[in-house]
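Render this sequence as a predicted structure.
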Amino acid sequence: MSFQAAPLRHAIEITPGGLPILDLLLAKWRPAVDQQAWEALMALDSAAVDILQELDSQQDDIRNPSAYVQRAVSNVKAQVDAVNQRALATSTASQGAFADATAAAATAAAMQFQTLNSLLQPVVPLVQPVQYMAAPGVMLDEKAMLALQTATPEVVTQVLAELQSKGAEVRNPSAYVQRALANARNKVGLAGQAAGQGGDVTTRLDEDAKRALQELNAEASQRILQQLIDAGDKVNNPSAYVMKAVRNAQQEGGVAGEPRPAGSLSLERVEFRRRGKP
């Protein structure tokens, strides 16, 4: 819906030869009004007659007829503009109300479609894994509980105590328990291998030396422990001996998960050979 302003139309054509009173007004005031004001007056419709009649009735009080006519014409145009603005505002409001109603209807239809679509979606039940309480505040999954059952009571007590002490720091208690039990089994395996060939040699080592052995693969760790057993009483400080042996093994590639190829040499030994040193 569009709106067009109402044009100023000539409902009464003001020309000589019309009504006698109109001819008299035109003849009387044409010489007193300048060209610009007169043309503005002639552009009006019947309001021009009213302006001329008011001018004639107030002639004793009007010193500048041209200014009076210009002001009167401006007032008439302002009134016409006000009427046009009100009509335009009414038209715009109607269009806005129609647009709002259309948008509301579209939104309601979209919501109904989404609701219907959600009802048609298949329902997938969420199955939560079963959790077991291994200790106060410690919930574990089935795999972790089975792993605890295969460990010794001492190891279970130690692992659960460490887990409880860490509290919220451990995001996945089940994974923590399985990893801790695996580490405990590895330590027991190393100690058992050494014990079969000369007693539990790991009892002579401090914690740093034990942790250093854990950083090597099983072959390198066993070799160092066997060398320590073979050395016997010649080694006054077993822990220092192991730490040095671990560093040498790491330099030669004997780190955990990286078995050293047979016959490989460390970079240090290669440099010695290049220089002709033994």
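Summary. Strands lie at 132-135, 138-140. The chain has two domains: 20-120, 132-275.
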